[in-house]
Amino acid sequence: MKGLTLNCMDRKSEAYELVRLGLKNDLKSHVCWHVYGLLYRSDREYREAIKCYRNALRIDPDNIEILRDLSLLQFLRSMPQDETVEGVPKSYNVDGKGRFIVAQMRDLTGFVETRQQLLTLKPNHRMNWIGFAVAHHLISNGAKAVEILEAYEGTLEDDYPPDNERCEHGEMLLYKISLLEECGFLERALEELHKKEPKIVDKLTYKEQEVSLLVKLGRMEEGANLYKALLAMNPDNYRYHEGLQKCCVLHSENGKYSSDETDQLDALYKSLAKEYTWSSTVKRIPLDFLQGDKFRDAAVNYIKPLLTKGVPSLFSDLSPLYDHPGKASLLTTDFPSPFELKQADIIEQLVLQLEHSVRNDGRYPERTEKEPPSTLLWILFFLAQHYDRRGQYDVALSKIDEAIQHTPTVIDLYSVKSRILKHAGDFSAAASLADEARCMDLADRYINSECVKRMLQADQVALAEKTAVLFTKDGDQHNNLHDMQCMWYELASGESYFRQGDLGWALKKFLAVEKHYADITEDQFDFHSYCLRKMTLRAYVEMLKFQDRLHSHAYFHKAAASAIRCYLKLYDSPLNSPAEEEDNTSKTPSQKKKMKKLRKAERAKKLCFISGGEEKNEESSASGNSKFGKRHIKPVDPDPHGEKLLKTEDPLAETSKYLKLLQKHSPDSLETHLLSFEANMRKQKILLAFQAVKQLLRLDAENPDSHRCLIKFFHKVESMPAPVTDAEKLVRSVLEAERPSISQLQNKTLSEANKVFLGKYEDSLMHRVAVAEMLNILDPARKLEAVKLIEDSSNKVMPTNGALGPVMEWKLKDCIAVHKLLDKVLIDQDAALRWKVRCAEYFPYSTYFEGSRSSAVHNSLNNLDINTTVNGGASYPGISGSENSVASNGKLEAFKNLTI
Amino acid sequence: MVCIRKATMDDLLAMQACNLLCLPENYQMKYYLYHILSWPQFLYVAEDYNGRIVGYVLAKMDEESNECHGHITSLAVLRTHRKLGLATKLMNAAQAAMEQVFEAEYVSLHVRKSNRAAFNLYTQTLGYKIHDVEAKYYADGEDAYDMRKQLKAKPSHQHGHHHHHHGGECCSGEGRNTQVTQTRGDSKTESKASMKLESKAV
């Protein structure tokens, strides 16, 4: 039997067969059952695995090995596999009704039992004590866990630990003290901490634990002193700063301080600044609470030396001051408070003054010593980002161009210029500038990554991959981006495929990201017993909690939401190649043909990549399991292009598993419920759609999308035929009972509710557009009125004190959405065209609107078919050498001599 | 400016993303988990004012050899956050923990021969010396310098010992370009060996 497990490394089906054969011969063999369980486990079929272990234990109840394996599975918390892996085991009823579902999801009680059994069997193993204690901690019985640990300590000699176990023992003590803290036994925790000090090796954690307890006990003065001691070791740790402020009762979560508090904080930081003269952290923090002239003085003192030094991140460091709601942000519904506006304005004024002084005089105002020439460069660099942030792209570009002229060799300037162009709406110019930057230092992966990102934003997927691959060769493997879990890349390329209508590839990428999260969940397995040995218990318990919330991470959210969007699109246009037809309206038929060809070529190329990858796998399977961890050798991907994904019978059903995960892990995201609404409306699941509407209203009833869903929903309900079946009647009665509780609809028809909403937000473009769209849905005869409502919106000048030119309210992204709505939903080509012309004025750099300063226009002037060329460029000059890298300056000249 | 603090579990995904943006040597999440679950004291991150992770250090104890020493697995700082001395601060924090908690005698690291900026940081600012050259250490065939820095040897069992102070020299003379370092993808064999993943005797 033993040989069989090895077999499962490469030949799974055979292994299963042999084990089953073994079981046929001897159904009473616990070894066979155990092996069977291990096979299932390795395939992540945890339910089946637990069943097998249980069967094995029925035959040999005290088998330590099997108990341990069982305990590991019982522990597996949060199981995305349950929802995501296809082919979930069919039968659960070997040992009783759904019990296993509980076991896998989180059978912590079962885990405690198993752990107890293990301890009873082998009480002389340290690990068994610790495991039992951790089990109790996990079922929120911290006090019991402490008891167990103390009982364990009771079994130790006085001179324990020996030298080679000091670290482990110290960790155990710190774990116990953190448990006491968690249980609220603060005095006891502190006492224990002091008593065990000599045995706690990790002195930094010791101090951090001590200060945490002191603060919780209200011993603020001691706390403050200890925080000061910690700051002496690391004055750049913001947690210590926060702690110190809290001890001085000066910390504010929302950043609002009374003037008295401000003065005290000011005094505190003045004294800290004397102590830590070299620390810029101590100078930065006061900018968060100072106001008016004091803010100004502190800001100048902070900014000047950093400009002289040329710190590229200075703007990003100050940008949170622009960030608070209503600050320099241009949201239409926010009323910028005068105080908050001032911070960004003050910064603008003072940097402009520095610019003036350095430009004319070569020095800062009221200084005698001259600044080096680079100071002007970094001032311009700062101002470019400042105006970019304010949406004044032409000013931003003129500043950055001046900086580039000043010193053409500084790579960061090109990166920033590329970012400005992206914000201004010219993705291809942004990509070509990023490529220019990349070519200036081919050994720097960061600028390579940035360039790849820009290329993907410009939908140059093939080129992006070629560029990324320059850094991802791993032996014979052409591209290890997937193996290395490079999620930003997979997401960005998935988004690009989605924009281009290539749903198969898009899904492939999004599901790849989802798979990484499943793998990370799986990763925890090997650490269960490892950590009990290593005694890194605090980190271990943190890891378990982390795994529980893993799927709330932004990358996962994005991947799941995008995958759902793909399936919805697939459902809405289930043509064979819905892709090609979408979003290409602006392209000529010949361009479309080219696109198709290119895509084919791209696919063929991918095929090569993938088969290349397989070869490598064949080879490495010889060297067997030396691969990191126990990740299996990848089986051949039966669907490398996502074509099978496209052929799913029921795209709506596919959305369910991702929706469930989003609802569980991102319940406070509007997007979650918008998607749930869209999916359930299509599925005719009226009550589920209604739930989504209620969630949207709970989260943000004023959001235009929430309004849309509310109106759409009740419009649908009103237009449903009279209920016939009991179920339908039930649904109807539930909705009738619920409707009066929705304040937006009280005593109003939907049209009236729509009108009220408009009245509330007449000045906001996106609210008007939502109202217009609903107007058209409620009564298609009023389409012209809807279009007029949109066209009558006015783009106002923002109330800022900007010294250089006005800032307009509307966002490019919103205006593009409006254009698409006019074009595709309201289907009024004339209005769409008028909108485009109007927006080209507002956004002269936008390629979408073909603004006069965008590369779209330059291209057509130069008669260059850039987009298609770039997408399929078979030879790419920038990669082999940098002959084209100089001075393309965003006008895409670098691609002039490209050939297909 | 930029916060230097111990890494938490929630930082690991951002550390991995930072690594993938900056460096050619990359690791799967499991390898990061392996580090933080083995030596939680050694992982530090640099977090900017917007809460973004802009740098990190990933380090370990080498338990295979008989001399007790630390090893810097990976160190990276985003290009956009140079000139702040972040790499120096991160390294000092990790080294201090190695010395204090594990009484490491020295700390080692690998650096590409061609990476002058990193090499300068290690030799001039941080006091590392070339110990050896490992031919074709990296996947693309480039050689690595095997570098070492001696830590203060100290008597075992100290009471009330104070944590190593590393604030003072942080900002001095940092390298121009601290986008740096390290160990190639040898994670595979390495952690397999040291983790002894559940040896199963069936």
TrEMBL record, chain A:
The keyword Nucleus does not apply. SMART domains: TPR. Residues 634-645 have a biased composition (Basic and acidic residues). Residues 576-599, 616-645 are annotated as: Disordered. GO terms for cellular component: cytoplasm. Keywords: Repeat, TPR repeat. The keyword Repeat applies. TPR repeats lie at residues 30-63. Transmembrane segments: none annotated. It comes from the Eukaryota. Coiled coil: none annotated. Residues 590-599 have a biased composition (Basic residues). InterPro entries: NatA_aux_su, TPR-like_helical_dom_sf, TPR_rpt. This is DNA repair family protein. It comes from Hibiscus syriacus (Rose of Sharon).
